[in-house]
Specification:
By secondary structure, the chain is an alpha/beta fold. The chain contains 21 helices and 27 strands. The protein has an 8-stranded parallel beta sheet with strand order 8-14-15-16-19-20-21-22. A 6-stranded mixed beta sheet has the order 3-2-7-25-26-27, with helices on one face. Strand 12 and strand 13 form a beta hairpin. Pfam families: Amidohydro_3.
């Protein structure tokens, strides 16, 4: 064997291979692991040009794989006044307004001020900001806040531009609510199809597709910088691969440019967005499926198309109806695309609908369907043994987002009355704890016991990564703990299962299990060095552990200060 370029030795290397082997050292050549074993075995391979790193007993795990990010959407909150106002850690209305006001003060009158996703836990005020709060700091600018992937809060200026007023009816197709006060005046909160309506009308004014509204005010270079900003956060959290969900062409072009410049240190499996909420007419859907996918410079193990993402039910609000979902899924499967669908967040009825559609798609060739590894995202409504067995028969991947659950369960619990009053969640349970559990508690242990492949995600920027607590999502997956408390104690899992959710299982869901997801010869040297033993530390310490170093293809790409 030619002497390796790099040896990492004197550590506890959790390989996450099939046998869950623990090793002491590994060797790397040209970014790929060539040997794993004992110190004696691996150190004997060193040559004059080999760099040897003493791990000093530290724990090493495969690079973490986040199976559900909105990568660049999170990054545009980190590029200053070239992107969106960062609100994800602002826990009160005063903090939210102060952050937006600073942007308003440097933005010419009449120009848009976009704010990123709000804090996903409970606001200290017990309510959300409204148009009148925003009007106090921005009477002469159109302003809107993203409350998540779909709902928004707009000020009076932005509502006027959208043509939304007291006499505007709630939209249908897709359904939505224009939240109103006791006197019938819109509060600025636009839910479900009402948010879609506003985006469509705003987009008509500035030009550009409604589904890319959140990017229309961000220049192409800022999008590249946004990608790199979130990449730095990912690497600080030990993340080396991401499945990017609902990615639009404008984002893909930024990724391609970053790769062209040699700047990518995260692998990206892209689930291309199907803008289902804006494709209600059949001619629009036919045109989309016939011409949407550009000849992007993608492929290989660094940046590739992993499938398509089709929205359906988020927080009880349907993005499209069942016949249109059926048409889109059958078309996608017929074209050989892997499909990812959020059947529900806590709404079991729509799980049955999605499974029935997928069963229809699989009828002609079940074996071929299973090979595509279609995915249920936001799968918390998948609870009944019968539905779990149906999902297993179809070979479906299951992708919860424990980091999101950690924060969002608190909102459902402590802001229950506000959510109920506004209609933010359709079909809300009358009991706050029941609502929090139903919405945000994944049945992880049941899924794993049934033999489903479960991978872990975050759903950033609806949640956020903190490099001081990089394994907070993994901790929530392990224990079912959240800011609201432990949701389902009987769904706690083992350390091995937790690690596999973010490594080997996630690699399998991405069809890259032969290249990433474990530390074995022939796989990329993507790995994270931790400050404590993730297999033996107390449960609570999993949430507090730190990533000391992250390696990408054997290159040290993050080192904790």
């Amino acid at each position: 064997m030619i002497a390796p370029d790099l040896i990492l030795t004197n550590g506890k290397i959790v390989t996450v291979d099939r046998e869950f082997t623990i090793a002491e050292a590994l060797a790397v050549t040209r970014g790929v692991i060539v040997a794993v074993g004992t110190r004696t075995e691996i150190e004997a391979l060193a040559g004059p040009g080999t760099k040897t790193v003493d791990l000093r007993g530290k724990c090493v795990v495969p690079g973490q794989i986040d199976s559900y990010q909105h990568f660049i959407t999170a990054g545009i909150d980190m590029v200053g006044d070239r992107g969106a106002v960062d609100l994800i850690t602002k826990t009160s209305i005063d903090e939210i307004l102060s952050a937006i006001k600073r942007r308003v003060e440097v933005t010419p009158e009449g120009q848009w001020v976009e704010a990123g996703c709000m804090y996903r836990g409970a606001l200290k005020d017990g309510r959300w900001p409204n148009r009148w709060d925003l009007d106090k700091i921005a009477p002469d600018h159109p302003v809107y806040i993203r409350q998540g992937g779909r709902p928004i809060i707009a000020n009076s200026y932005a509502l006027r531009l959208a043509g939304i007023g007291r006499d505007t009816p709630d939209p249908t197709g897709p359904d939505g609510i224009i939240a109103r006060d006791a006197d019938g005046e819109p509060t600025g909160q636009l839910i479900g199809g009402a948010a879609d309506l506003a985006r469509e009308r705003w987009s008509e004014l500035v030009g550009g597709p409604a589904w890319e509204w959140d990017f229309l005010h961000v220049e192409s270079e800022a999008l590249v910088d946004a990608a790199l900003a979130q990449q730095r956060v990912n690497l600080a959290c030990g993340i080396t691969t991401v499945r990017d969900d609902a990615t639009y062409p404008v984002e893909i072009r930024a990724w391609v440019e970053a790769r062209r410049r040699g700047l990518l240190r995260n692998r990206l499996g892209v689930l291309v967005a199907v803008p289902e909420r804006h494709l209600w007419a059949k001619e629009d859907r036919d045109r989309f499926f016939g011409s949407y996918f550009e000849p992007w410079e993608m492929g290989g193990d660094l940046l590739w198309v992993a499938g398509v993402s089709i929205g359906y039910n988020l927080e009880g609000w349907m993005q499209i109806d069942e016949p249109r979902l059926r048409e889109m899924v059958l078309e996608s499967v017929a074209r050989g695309w892997t499909v990812a669908i959020p059947p529900s967040i806590g709404v079991s009825e729509s799980v049955d609908e999605v499974l029935s559609i997928l069963e229809t798609a699989a009828e002609a060739d079940l074996a071929g369907f299973v090979k595509q590894r279609h995915t249920l995202t936001h799968p918390h409504g998948l609870r009944s043994p019968k539905d779990i067995e149906r999902a297993k028969r179809l070979g479906l991947m299951v992708n919860p987002n424990p980091l999101l659950s950690y924060y969002a369960a608190e909102r459902s619990l402590r802001m229950h009355s506000q959510i109920e009053a506004t209609g933010f969640h359709r079909g809300i349970a009358p009991d706050a704890w029941e609502q929090a559990v139903g919405m945000w508690a994944p049945s992880t242990r049941d899924w794993l016991d049934a033999g489903l492949v479960v991978s872990g995600g975050s759903n950033i920027p609806a949640a956020t990564y903190d490099p001081e607590r990089p394994f907070l999502g993994q901790y929530s997956a392990l224990t079912s703990d959240t800011l609201a408390g432990v949701l389902l104690p009987d769904q706690a899992i083992t350390r091995e299962q937790m690690l596999r959710m973010y490594t080997s299982n996630a690699a399998y869901a991405l069809m890259r299990e032969d290249r990433i997801g474990s530390l074995e010869p022939g796989k990329y040297a993507d790995l994270a060095v931790l400050d404590r033993d993730v297999l033996t530390c107390p449960d609570g310490e999993v949430a507090e552990l730190k990533v000391l170093e992250t390696y990408f293809e054997g290159e040290l790409v993050h080192e904790r200060a």
